[in-house]
Amino acid sequence: MSPTVPARATSAAAGRAAAAGPETAGPETAAVRSAAPSTVLDPAVGENSGGTVAGGPGTPSPGGPRRRFLSPRTTPPAGRRRPTRWGVVAASAAALFFAVALVWPAALSPRDPLALDLTAALQAPGLAHWFGTDEAGRDLFARVVWGTRDSLAIGFGATLVSMTTALVLGSLAALAPRWLAGAVDRLIEVLLAFPTLLLALLLVAVIGPSAVSSMIAVGIGTAPGYARMIRGQVLSVRRSGYVEAAVALGHPRRSVLARHVVPNAVRPLVAVVALSIGQSIVWASSLSFLGLGVAPPSSEWGALLEAGRTYVTHGWWLTVIPGLVIAALALTTTTLGKALQDSLERGER
Q1: At 82, is the pLDDT very low, low, confident or very high (cuts 50, 70, 90)?
Q2: Global pTM?
């Protein structure tokens, strides 16, 4: 049996052996080499395996189970799911339907949405009337199709009011003098303290119920959140290198703001506009359902909901179908908006 070699002596002798080379290694060095466990770097693992080599490089180390590298993450993180391809295709088909209903509603439904037929009142959905009829015998499918124009007009108008107000407030909060920026920032915080629907209800109560008042109320009600978003974008772009370079080259302040700051701050919000259209239609329909929006006999979807509320027990289609159409439009704009946002982010990379 060979004598035991202390750990320090073993490491020292191994160092002398490495410096001396294989030709000058003596019997003590050979004994140390045979006694000291050799630790290798496993190329399959990429780190120290911690075991002794018994049968050469092809023998697995007995120091423990091998660890393998995990494959890189290929799925988006939780909470940020990208729309699937089929989801985008379905949303595009729905958007095409709504676009045709907006531009040429007679191509989808040649019936008059206001034509009365008391003999066909409150008929359930069927072949003659796809969405059924209301209490006056009017075809619900025709009313939904022709009401697309009113609902989308309110949605686009409210989005225009919202984005214009948000752009003004957000730019002032980021670029105005300190006293004015502070006052605008406090105003945005006060408006954010009110829920969107409550703020819209207060504005409609002051202005009066109508389609225009719904646009203004919903637009101002949704503007504070977008104003805070625009403020952050403007501050981020203002500190970027190309803006500082333009200032250093002596360009006028107004030119820098108009050509560099505002356009680059607004560009990422293109996808937000698509999301805002669906949300605005939902809020405007809520006002109409509460009796503070567009009044009957208009075919606006919220007005259809409000008119069918009385017959919900024996005419369920009068409320369910317009509600599903509103949800479908909101889902369509949300899906397309997220797909557009992902496309813009990939382009920026």
Answers
A1: low
A2: 0.69
Strand partners, 39: 52
**Number of domains the chain is built from:** 1
Task: Please give the Cα distance from 304 to 317 (Å, whole number).
Answer: 11
The C-alpha atoms of residue 240 and residue 78 are separated, in whole angstroms, by 30
Dig out the tokens for 190 from the structure.
Answer: 């006060």
Burial environment of residue 39 by CB neighbours within 10 A (0 to 12, 13 to 18, 19 or more)? middle
Domain of residue 247, residue span: 94-348
Could you tell me which residue, 244 or 331, shows the higher pLDDT?
Answer: 331
Residue 16 lies in a domain: no
Residue 239 lies in a domain: yes
pLDDT of res. 154: 92
Residue 45 belongs to a domain:
no
Residue 163 corresponds to which tokens in the numbers above?
């984005």
Question: How many CB atoms sit inside 10 A of residue 82's CB?
Answer: 13
The whole-number pLDDT of residue 114 equals 86
CATH number at residue 164: 1.10.3720.10
